[in-house]
Write a structure and sequence with these properties.
The complex is a heterodimer of chains A (560) and B (324). Chain A is α/β, with parallel strands linked by helices and 560 residues long. Chain A folds into 3 domains: 284 residues, FAD/NAD(P)-binding domain; 110 residues, Alpha-Beta Complex (Flavocytochrome C3, Chain A, domain 1), CATH 3.90.700.10; 128 residues, Methane Monooxygenase Hydroxylase, Chain G, domain 1, CATH 1.20.58. Chain A is built from 16 helices and 21 strands. The longest helix of chain A has 25 residues. The radius of gyration of chain A is 22 Å and the shape is globular. Chain B is α+β, with helices and mostly antiparallel strands and 324 residues long. Chain B has 14 helices and 7 strands. Chain B starts with 5 loop residues before the first strand and ends in a 5-residue tail after the last helix. Classes of the chains: A alpha/beta (560), B alpha+beta (324). At the A-B interface, helix 3, helix 4, helix 10, helix 13 and helix 15 of A face helix 1 and helix 4 of B.
Chain lengths: 560, 324
């Protein structure tokens, strides 16, 4: 049996930062990831990282913007801590070697972003995530830790009221392994592949969130799903909010800059939920463009000039040219919203602690909550680093005080047996067919606009898919890189989360941030200013609610 | 309205070393729009025809670096290669694993040697103790200093260059284009305090094994241009250390020949590269050349108009990049 003090699952920015904090605290640390760390989805983040660092900007404005962006569902104590840590953690990443874009005076360059009262988004061209991921991985490489690359998380072993370790699956050898650990940090990132249109990578299947839920962790605010306004039509490849920050504008089929009707003050730089709903409304009301890949609107960058577009939005230029055959210097970009970010996740406090002793979470897999009902662009990279560090430090501290772990010989077999059974069936359900049906269901019934009938229908369909999943079959007989098997594991995870999203969305009879109910179009602070908590039972998620933490900001109507 | 489609034949390399003696090519035929990326096609094969087809992939937008493979014999990202031009040019799409890395299964290769070479260049900032990072604030760096990184920050470590590189194939000691482009990124970083040491240490069994074929630059999906950065590293290495390796001595000797004589004298160049003693080792090769082309082995003499060449070199020396 493998044994470490702290096991971090996921090796994107949150996982790596957690691992660094735990290593620096002197602990024996292992990182388990189903990819190579440099392939993590953090590297796909484009636009930037928020920090109020200039003399003209203030941390208080950043806090206020985040509170308002969250539609008053973010915990204000957590948001205050988060925004205060922004400056120092960006300095730290610069010292680790991040190559940021610069202003002529040698300071960090900043660009405007949606929902922000000041241009405070620090960036590295339009590949900020990649720049941070490289620098952090290179910094972490100077430390001692164990990496288990291309290992899947299968189960978190909880016994005697605390974490004892994990069961993982090594893709290369096709073997299940147990890793005893005093503390475990879940940093497995997004779950965008629940939807058919998503900016997320194929690997974003919410594994850690689902496995933590299965282990008894509370999932918080899962019904809040962010749709990014500008995803490239057909492929849903992300076109950064930075494109609008640099001056890009949105137009409908009649050439109208329609955002003036939805957000008269800040137009395209309203927060993401607002812009996404505007685009969907334009298309639904017949004012969008139509084509073989559905309705869409135009994102125009042409007026910015070749030099600006090609230098500040270099990757976007490449994406458009390679993936849509379009040159954004001379042509408009066809865009439509796509799933982008899960505000919800494993419920934690500021230290990354969950309701299970020894279990921690950080990054997109976690919900502190700082994003509340809607995340601001530029706050997620910041979240990975700030709360990755906090969770890693807390996990290290917990490991020091914890007694020895007690994994049992039966732990591995209990986790592995059902999965091994999938391969011995002579007939059964195909995991990729289940995945496609699940994605279409979530897209259709739990998308940008929701209502009671749709959510109930979605829930019925997801539950039917879950019972079909009980008969899932793996036909690939090889032990080496059996993607047919890992596909099935991932679909199982996603179906679990789909149910939690639907149940939470059905219960929440109001519209707040990214959760827009056409049958309850108003925000209801009286009844719903609270976090949804979901806990797994044999009959489905059991919902309870927790208060939102307030410090200084009274809820107001949200106007951009 | 639906996009028009073409019938595309895919011949995909299949091999499970644990269960098969030798690889085979499996044909799949799909109706696809010409702009469909090869990755999308492979994922459709997995979903609709054969779930046992094995490959690495994740972001599908050329930023995670997972899906590099050989597509019609070129190292490419599957997600960034549309099928239309491939079918048009080659009549089919032959999909094989990357080269220079052992196959684990189908299109998945063992990247241990690739990552080991990346580690070899010590890819992290090394501070000069005399110049610590400023306390509590970022270092100052102008946009011009950022420009000195060229396109190296765009590298996604996909290993397409490593796969395309004949020097990697010839000598596993060669770090490969990606590692050297990464080295360049640290050498030009104004925050790094180990530039000279890096340039000295990369020379034995390293930098000079590059064959200057530029196939890496052709293969790179992010336009990092590794071969150009390797050229820059070579210039900087000579500026730091002069000629220490056969490669650097050869480069210096080549230039001296042209400046002194106005044309290449092979005898002189061999002596400069390998030394008088080392010339003995080159004797069999020299004899072979002498038998076929005796005019090559001749006494050095200066050609007419060599002064002009000298002036060109003087101008180039003035303009060349020197390490910081």
């Amino acid at each position: 049996m493998l044994r470490h003090e702290v096991v971090v699952v996921g090796a994107g920015l949150a996982g790596q930062r957690a691992a660094l904090a735990a290593v620096e605290a002197g602990r024996d640390v292992a990182i388990v990831t189903k990819l190579h760390p440099l392939r993590s989805h953090s590297g796909a983040a484009q636009g930037g990282i928020n920090a109020a660092v200039g003399a003209e900007d203030s941390v208080d404005t950043h806090i206020y913007d985040t509170v308002k962006g969250s539609d008053y569902l973010g915990d204000q104590d957590a948001i205050e801590f988060f925004c205060r840590e922004a400056g120092p953690i960006v300095v730290e990443m610069e010292h680790f070697g991040t190559i940021f874009s610069r202003s002529p005076d040698g300071s960090l360059a900043r660009r405007p972003f949606g929902g922000a009262g000041f241009p405070r988004t620090i960036y590295a061209a339009d590949r900020t995530g990649l720049a941070l991921l490289q620098a952090l991985w290179e910094r972490l490489g100077t430390e001692r830790f164990t990496l288990y690359p291309e290992w899947d998380l299968i189960r978190i072993v909880v016994r005697d009221g605390r974490v004892q370790g994990i069961i993982a699956y090594d893709r290369k050898r096709g073997e299940f392994e147990e890793i005893a650990a005093k503390s475990v940090v879940i940093a497995t990132g997004p779950a965008g592949r629940l939807y058919s249109r998503t900016t997320n990578a194929h690997s974003c299947t919410g594994d850690g969130v689902a496995v933590a839920y299965d282990a008894g962790a509370f999932l918080k605010d899962m019904e809040f799903v962010q749709f990014h306004p500008t995803a490239l039509l057909e492929t849903s490849i992300l076109i950064t909010e930075g494109a609008r920050g640099e001056g890009g504008i949105l137009k409908n089929a009649s050439g109208e800059r329609f955002m003036s009707r939805y957000a008269p003050h800040v137009l395209e730089l309203a927060s993401r939920d607002v812009v996404s709903r505007a685009i969907v409304t334009e298309v639904a009301d017949g004012r969008g463009f139509t084509g073989p890949y559905g309705g869409y609107v135009h994102l125009e960058l042409m007026h910015l000039g070749k030099e600006k577009v090609e230098s500040r939005l270099q990757e976007i230029c490449d994406f458009c040219r390679h993936f849509a055959g379009i040159d954004p210097v001379t042509e408009p970009i066809p865009v439509y919203p796509a799933q982008h970010y899960m505000m919800g996740g494993v419920g934690t406090n500021i230290r990354g602690e969950t309701n299970i002793p020894g279990l921690f979470a950080a990054g997109e897999a976690a919900c502190v909550s700082i994003h509340g009902a809607n995340r601001l662009g530029g706050n997620s990279l910041l979240e990975t680093l700030v709360f990755g560090r906090e969770a890693g430090a807390a996990a290290a501290q917990y490991a020091v005080g914890a007694s020895a772990t007690t994994m049992r010989a039966t732990d591995l077999d209990e986790a592995a047996r059902p999965i091994r059974g999938w391969s011995s069936r002579s007939e059964g359900e195909d995991p990729s067919a289940l995945r496609t049906e699940m994605q279409e269901t979530m897209e259709r019934y739990a998308g940008i606009y929701r209502n009671e009938a749709d959510l109930l229908e979605g829930l019925r369909r997801i539950r039917a898919l879950r019972s079909r999943f009980d008969r899932v079959r793996v036909v690939d007989a090889s032990k080496v890189y059996n993607l047919n098997l890992t596909d099935a594991v991932e679909v199982g995870h996603m179906l679990e989360l789909a149910e939690v999203i639907l149940v939470g969305a059905y219960a929440r009879t109001e519209s707040r941030g990214a959760h827009a109910r056409t049958d309850f179009p108003k925000r209801d602070d009286q009844k719903w200013m609270k976090h949804t908590l979901a806990q797994k039972t044999s009959t489905g998620p059991n919902l309870s609610y927790a208060p939102v933490a307030y410090t200084r900001w009274e809820p107001k109507e949200r106007v951009y | 309205m639906a996009a028009s489609t073409v019938a595309a034949n895919f011949d995909v390399f299949r091999f499970d070393p644990a269960r098969q003696v030798q690889p085979r090519y499996q044909r799949y035929t799909l109706e696809l729009a010409p702009h469909t990326p090869v990755l999308t096609a492979l994922l459709r094969i997995r979903a609709e025809i054969d779930p046992s087809l094995t490959l690495r992939y994740s972001c599908r937008s050329a930023i995670c670096g997972s899906c590099a493979m050989q597509i019609n014999s070129k190292s490419r990202l599957a997600c960034q290669t549309p099928i239309g031009p491939e079918v048009e040019r080659h009549g089919r799409v032959v999909v094989e694993p990357m080269r220079n890395q052992p196959v684990l299964r189908d299109l998945v290769v063992d990247q241990a040697s690739f990552w080991a070479q990346y580690d070899r260049i010590e890819p992290h900032l090394k501070l000069d103790p005399a110049h610590p990072m400023p306390e509590g604030r970022t270092t100052s760096m102008t946009p011009e200093e950022v420009d000195r990184f060229k396109e190296t920050p765009r590298c996604i470590a996909c290993a397409a260059c490593f796969s395309a590189c004949p020097a990697v194939e010839a000598d596993p000691a060669f770090p490969g284009p990606m590692a050297l482009a990464k080295l360049y990124r640290f050498v030009v970083d104004p925050r790094d305090g180990a530039t000279q040491d890096r340039l000295v240490r990369i020379q034995p069994n390293g930098l000079w094994l590059c064959l200057r074929c530029h196939l890496c630059t052709e293969a790179c999906p992010k336009d990092v241009r590794p071969s150009e950065r390797i050229r820059d590293l070579k210039e900087m290495a000579i500026a730091v250390q002069g000629g220490t390796e056969h490669g650097s001595k050869h480069a210096i000797g080549f230039k001296d020949n042209i400046v002194d004589l106005g044309l290449l004298n092979e005898m002189k160049l061999v002596r400069q590269t390998f030394g008088v003693g080392g010339m003995l080792g080159q004797l069999p090769q020299g004899l072979k050349i002498w038998r076929k082309k005796p005019e090559v082995i001749r006494k050095p003499h200066r050609i007419e108009g060599a002064d002009e060449l000298e002036k060109i070199y003087a101008e180039l020396d003035k303009r060349s990049e020197t390490p910081k």
